[in-house]
Amino acid sequence: MKASSTATRARGADFDAIVVGAGFGGLYAVHKLRDGLGLDVQAFDSADDVGGTWYWNRYPGALSDTESYCYRFSFDKELLQQGHWKSRYLTQPEILDYLSGFADRFDLRRSYQFGTKVTAARFDESAGLWNVTTDKGRTLTAKYLVTGLGLLSATNKPPFKGIDGFKGETYHTGAWPEGIDLAGKRVGVIGTGSTGVQVIIALAPVAKHLTVLQRSAQYVVPIGNGPESEERINEYKAQYEAIWKQVKESAVAFGFAESTVPAMSVSEAQRERVFEDAWKRGGGFYFMFATFSDIATSPEANAAAADFIKRKIAGAVKDPDTARKLMPTDLYAKRPLCGTDYYDVYNRANVTLADVKADPIAEFTPTGIRLQSGAEHELDVVVFATGFDAVDGNYTRIDMRGRSGVTIREKWKEGPLGYLGMMESDFPNFFMILGPNGPFTNLPPSIETQVEWISDTIAHMERKGARTVEPTQAAEDEWIAACRTIADMTLFPKAQSWIFGANIPGKKNAVMFYMAGLCNYTKALNSVKESGYGAMIFDREPAMVV
């Protein structure tokens, strides 16, 4: 139901709300605040059009590893019925087309200024407004600031020695230019995370030679991709009410039922059958969460899953030394990875695997990369699949200041905080979509959940005539403690992973996600609302300046 259009601009403000970002989160926020609440909204994105992460991630092989039928918005029933896709998993161009069509459907582009980066955001306590500055030199004011900066969009490009002297081409997968053709070239890929796996699979058949510079051996299961028939797509559409109910009442929200069976409660032969069936079906999150209930929590169950994958690696890779390098030694407790015939790539004559943990990169040379052992790899192109300064990276790169001028960098110097993954104490009227300590799930359902909660909270403020809202420090501390307690009940903190910031040198290992699932997360949000927002401070008085 649309709120009254009498919601008026705060005194002296340019807009009611400023939204940053044009991905799933930013687009839905503009729609909910502008079309749902009748607010005057200005939005920004540094790209030239909508898409967010999917605008920039144009690298070869880019696709979602959430199945197509539930990697989309669920709130618009008509849009769900109009959905179309070709395969079980959406490619990057398909996702970009979907978001572009979503923006067309609700005429969202008219609220955006594209090609514009927000460089600073400062809260003016006396006026109760956010002052938002862009790289175009403009500063605009608004009562509310909503950021959809993305979990994985602040690119991480390690400062290797000699890189400026490299005469070839370099690209980061998270900022991939259009029209790049790497066919027939000697390509080096640094990194074997989710993106690295996808780009390695895509480039192996077309590169003259592909050198994979692997920092950490990974557990990669098949993705099980393939064409999806119109008949199957129509079956999804007919069942969408039940599908979305299941998704939102589940933990990881990937559209499958998570297992309730502990791995060690069945025989070894039964475990093998379950793992084999999941391997044949495909899906990284499916393999971790639909096989047994305790892969992510029990060392014994985790070892059973890891050993199964290691046996698959040994069976797929023909060269024993290459197979040895590909064998993971860490826990199976990072973001689950999947791809099509990943390990078979290393049987190709034009593919070389370099273990740069055992023999690190010493420097770039004009013609390639030299390792510490002196081994040299001659390259025409280097692809950085080195990931992102995840979750909080885009926030700490903006000069963001709350009450009394406190910066977000200062607040988060010991690790990112964030109440409910959406708010921060001392930062009034500030809402983050997919901020720190939000749910670890398929993202569109979590984005919808958060944007709807943000919209409800703002509507509550407008009804009561509140000037500001922010979480209490006690509520935030309690939330962070709960996130840490839940994370420590799993094996994820014991693995070196970007999920806890381990991919950024010098970054403190910190909890960044609420890992109890979307269903429990939604219950937590509802309890805050049902309590009358007892965890919030409304209309806090400005600090006295002495």
TrEMBL record:
InterPro entries: FAD-binding_Monooxygenases (IPR050775), FAD/NAD-bd_sf (IPR036188), Flavin_mOase-like (IPR020946). Pfam families: FMO-like. GO terms for molecular function: flavin adenine dinucleotide binding; N,N-dimethylaniline monooxygenase activity; NADP binding. Keywords: FAD, Flavoprotein, NADP, Oxidoreductase. It comes from the Bacteria. PANTHER family: DUAL-FUNCTIONAL MONOOXYGENASE_METHYLTRANSFERASE PSOF, L-ORNITHINE N(5)-MONOOXYGENASE-RELATED. This is NAD(P)/FAD-dependent oxidoreductase. It comes from Vineibacter terrae.
